[in-house]
Please model this.
Amino acid sequence: MDLQAKNLSAELSKRNIRPSYQRIKVLEYLIKNQFHPTADQIFTGLQGEIPTLSKSTIYNTLNTFIQSGLVRVLNIEDNETRYDIITESHGHFKCETCGAIFNFKINIDSFATEELKGFKVIDKNVYFKGVCPKCLLNINQGKNNRKENVL
Amino acid sequence: MDLQAKNLSAELSKRNIRPSYQRIKVLEYLIKNQFHPTADQIFTGLQGEIPTLSKSTIYNTLNTFIQSGLVRVLNIEDNETRYDIITESHGHFKCETCGAIFNFKINIDSFATEELKGFKVIDKNVYFKGVCPKCLLNINQGKNNRKENVL
DNA sequence: GTAAATATAATAATCATTACAAGTTTAAAC
DNA sequence: GTTTAAACTTGTAATGATTATTATATTTAC
Ligand SMILES: [Mn+2]
Ligand SMILES: [Mn+2]
Ligand SMILES: [Zn+2]
Ligand SMILES: [Zn+2]
Model:
């Protein structure tokens, strides 16, 4: 996906979303920061550029994007929703130590068809949790990882 | 799993959870009502039997059960946590129309190993969403389903 | 250019969950 | 069996993410 504002604007228009300044910036942020940010992270990340920005706009914008299929929702955390600009089917691994969320390829369509015959499946999510390699290494070395969201 | 109070008590003791009256009742509720209830549903369902019951106790108890591996958490909803007494690996399908959550067999271990080499995987969840057969039928007949949690 | 529709922003409301403090029950020690 | 400490329950307050609301601003249609 390209980062040019014009292309972003066109991308929104194509989906019948009016390309306001705020919406373009949120879309740009999601493309640049693909670590599955929270609404608050997006808000904080854009506040410098858009001093008048409101958190309501972040939520409104995200919900608009979700409805049009432009972003994907992750409910991998119990308290906060995360947003993914990559809508192609893939699995997610959350490191419980550092909080980072990793993508991994997975062919979700290849299984679980028999028992769900008669069901209309619209959305599929695969969430794994555990400890990432970096944190495993640090734990073995007796180090203590900070819980932050660095991919 | 048996429903006898003695067995429930023993089941808790085995896991070093003191078998209080409230805990036995919550466990009993989870065994009897396997529709993946919310904390509030458990609370409401037990209030008649235990008039002094507090919602704090529900949450405390559930968190104790989770820690010991006696129940499984479902984050398939964006707002409310659901609890599952069946801890064996299986997938979940949520009908967006009636709200019911169905189990389905799935061999989660059979895939997604290559890319996660070096990761320590502790927990795996597969969540599908869509419309269940009953609701599909009603939709086709022009009926309107109520959103309730009947399995 | 004017009116209608839509978007933004600020604030208040909602609601699930957790934190905390006080009272109660349980279990061990004597 | 009484004493005593630890664990559990309860009620209430606090937290925090998300939504609702409403006034203002911006965009679109005519
Ligand atoms: Mn992703
Ligand atoms: Mn289940
Ligand atoms: Zn990590
Ligand atoms: Zn249904």
Summary: The mean pLDDT of chain B is 91. DSSP finds five helices and five strands in chain B. Strands of chain B lie at 72-74, 82-84, 91-95, 101-104, 120-131.
